[in-house]
Write a structure and sequence with these properties.
about 325 residues; alpha/beta; Rossmann fold; 7-stranded parallel β-sheet; two-stranded parallel sheet; 13 strands; about 15% strand
Length: about 325
């Protein structure tokens, strides 16, 4: 019996970097496509460097007739009806990366049936935008409408990994990068006591890999995350202990001006107000049942953050947030 051939788009990201070796160990032949060079010593894995959204490159890899495609790319509203049908028509099992950000804040814990912002939000700006939570939900809607159910939707919670460390809406440069440089980090006071679910990329990648070629997963959506949750204050304390991050809690309006002073660019505001200020306690029982995994298999948050941060080069060239420096200087 020939091994299953799997194509991974966006193959060097936070989850894919761990999922690919997992699939290879299961006996799959894995081809990964990414903008940057991938590295895996397993003989079943090949990486191809290039833009997977390029139509010529897409036609080239779809002609290879992969048994499954795991898609970590993001597609805007205009791209969804053109690209997704091509992928569905050229494979037996297509996994679409959605996001836990599609959910509204109307149920706790969040389950796969919980209301989505695209269906319940009253914000006309958000609903008429191409924000991340909206175009991910539009991609889901297209899949839900398809007669052939050869797809699976996965909705990861906030996922940390190598060089990817989140604190509220801050990413690695403004969290661990500033901590390494001995600089304080500005975070919004309104998020301090909000519960958040952060999951290790290795656990998320394994969950997605375990759903592949699983008949019960066809035509279904799954939360991809640990069930462990903490407030952002508790998470900031973890960073403090691991890499001496000093959090300065400020009003969210000051925080948003630091991230982007343009009031008409609402992306950062939406990420904060429609995700990080929501109660993000997320149920993962459905994916555990489908994969046979257990919550006890999940990486504890403190241990996972410490492992990933400890292997981060101290001289990594992080970009500097001058607006955050200026704001902190003005507070003195």
């Amino acid at each position: 019996m020939k091994p299953e051939k799997v194509l991974v788009l966006g193959a060097t990201g936070a989850m894919a970097r761990y999922m690919i070796p997992f699939l290879a160990e299961k006996g799959c032949q894995v081809d990964g496509v990414a903008l940057d060079a991938g590295e895996c010593k397993h003989p079943n894995v090949k990486y191809y460097q290039g833009n997977a959204k390029d139509p010529a490159l897409r036609a080239e890899y779809l002609a290879r007739n992969y048994d499954a495609i795991v898609d970590y790319l993001t597609y805007t509203t205009s791209e969804i009806p053109f690209i997704l049908p091509q992928l569905l028509d050229h494979t037996g099992h297509y996994i679409f990366l959605s996001s836990g950000r599609v959910y509204d804040n109307l149920e706790k814990p969040v389950r796969e049936t919980s209301p989505r912002l695209i269906d319940t939000s009253k914000d006309p700006y958000l609903l008429n935008s191409d924000d991340y939570c909206i175009y991910k939900a539009r991609g889901e809607n297209l899949l839900f409408s398809m007669e052939r159910k050869n797809w699976t939707i996965v909705r990861p919670a906030t996922t940390y990994s190598y060089l990817r460390y989140q604190l509220v809406t801050l990413e690695a440069a403004d969290s661990v990068g500033r901590a390494f440089a001995g600089k304080p980090v500005v975070v919004p006071e309104q998020a301090r006591n909000k519960p958040a679910t952060l999951s290790w990329g290795g656990d998320a990648g394994r969950m997605i890999g375990a759903l592949l070629f699983c008949d019960c997963a066809l035509g279904e959506a799954y939360n991809i995350n640990s069930a462990e949750h903490h407030t952002w204050q508790e998470i900031a304390d973890y960073y403090k202990d691991i890499c001496n991050l000093k959090a300065v809690w400020v009003d969210k309006e000051d925080y948003l001006k630091i991230l982007n002073p343009n009031p008409y660019n609402r992306a950062k505001r939406w990420q904060l107000e429609y995700a990080r200020l929501f109660d993000r306690e997320v149920d993962n029982s459905k994916v555990l049942a489908a994969t046979g995994m257990k919550q006890s298999d999940m990486m504890p948050l403190y241990d996972g953050l410490k492992m990933e941060i400890d292997r981060t080069p101290r001289d990594y060239p992080w970009p500097n947030n001058q607006r955050m420096d200026n704001y902190l200087a003005a507070m003195k």
